[in-house]
Amino acid sequence: MSFLTISHLEKSFGVTRVVKNFNLDVEKGEFISLLGPSGCGKTTVLRMVAGFETPSAGNITIEGREVSSLRPNQRNIGMVFQAYALFPNLTVAQNVGFGLRVKGVPAREIAARVEEMLALIGLPELGDRYPFQLSGGQQQRVALARALAPKPQVLLLDEPLSALDAKVRVSLRNEIRAIQRELGITTIFVTHDQEEALSMSDRIVVMHQGVAEQVGTPFEIYNTPATRFVAGFVGTLNTLDAKVLDPSIGRVKLGGNEMTLGRAIPPGEALLGLRPEMLRLGAHPGEAALTGTITELDFLGSVIRLRIDLGGQPLAVDLFNTTRQAPPKVGETVSLALNPSDALVIGG
Ligand code: ATP
C-alpha cells in the first residue's frame, strides 16, 4: 500500500463539481506536483488532503489511516501557502516554534528544534527578526521551516513561489527540493507553472476541469502527453491538422507536405503534435522532410526561434545555435527534418 492514497475523491460546491473522481497513490518521500490552469481544482484537492475542505465523496489515507474525518490539526500535515502567512507580531524563531508550542512541547526542545530548522533553511542568524524585516524569499523559507518544525508526515505546498520575483523563485525551487530530499518528506506541491512542475517533481498530475488527465514523471508528461490538453499545457507544441493517406503506415499529408510516421494511426483526420526543438534544418537520412517558408526569426543567443509557414499552417521551430553557421533569413524556403517517432499523434 502507498504512503498516501487518494481514491475516488469528489468535491462539489453547490451544483458545480470542481474535483471529479480524483485518484492518486503517493509513495513515501515522493515529490508530487498538481499542475493545471487556474480554477482546475488543484487547490481544492490540496485543501481536502489538509482537512480545510470536506470531500463530497471519496477517501484519503495516510499510512493506511483514513484521515477524511479528522480535523486539520489531527492529520500531522505541514502546509505552506502562497501569501506569506507568517504571524507578523511574532519573531522568526517564534513563528518557527509556533506549532510545537501549540502541542505543548517543552521550551528547551522548541529552542533546539527552531535552531535546527533555521540552519536547514540557511537563515541561522535571523531568529530575532520580525517578518516585515525579511525579503519575500526569506519569509517563504521561514514559512517552510514553520511547517516542517513539528515533523509532519506530509508537506503540502500551495503555490509557495508564485508571489516571488523570477530570480528568487528559481533559487528557492532548488532549495525546497534539496530540503525535501534531505528530510525525505512526502510532498504535494500545487502550481500552475509547468517549468516549476517539470524541474521539481518526481511525478506530475496534470489537472484540467477537475480531472487528473495524466499522472507521470516529468519526462513522460513532456514526451508522451496522453491528451490534447496535456500536450498543449506542458511545453510548447505545434499542433497541425493532417489528412491520413494510409493509416497502416501512418502516411499523412500536412500543409502541402507528406510524411510517413512508420506506425499505424487511426484513419481520417489526425492532429499531430511537433515540439519546436524536434525539428532541424536540412535533410537527414531516415528522417521525414518538411518544406516551408520562414516568416519570422528571433535570434535568442543559444536558440534561434523560427516561425515557418507550412502550406498555410504555422510551425514554430527552435534551432540550437551549436553550429555557429549564419542563420537562414526571413523569406527563405527551407527543408526541415524530423524523426518520425518524435511526432505525437494526439487523441483525447
Ligand atoms: P487557482 O490556481 O486559481 O487557485 P485551482 O486550480 O487551485 O486554481 P481551485 O481553487 O481548486 O482551483 O478552484 C476550483 C474551482 O472551485 C474554481 O472554479 C473555484 O471558483 C471553485 N471554488 C473553490 N472554492 C470554492 C468555494 N469555497 N465555494 C465555491 N466555489 C469554490
From TrEMBL:
The organism's place on the tree of life at top rank: Bacteria
GO BP: any one term: quaternary ammonium group transport
Keyword tags: ATP-binding, Nucleotide-binding, Transport
Any one GO molecular-function label of the UniProt entry: ATP binding
GO cellular component: ATP-binding cassette (ABC) transporter complex
Segments forming domain ABC transporter: 4-234
Keyword Transport: yes
Keyword match ATP-binding: yes
InterPro entries in UniProt: AAA+_ATPase, ABC_SmlMolc_Importer, ABC_transporter-like_ATP-bd, ABC_transporter-like_CS, Mo/tungstate-bd_C_term_dom, P-loop_NTPase, Transp-assoc_OB_typ2
Protein name in UniProt: ABC transporter ATP-binding protein
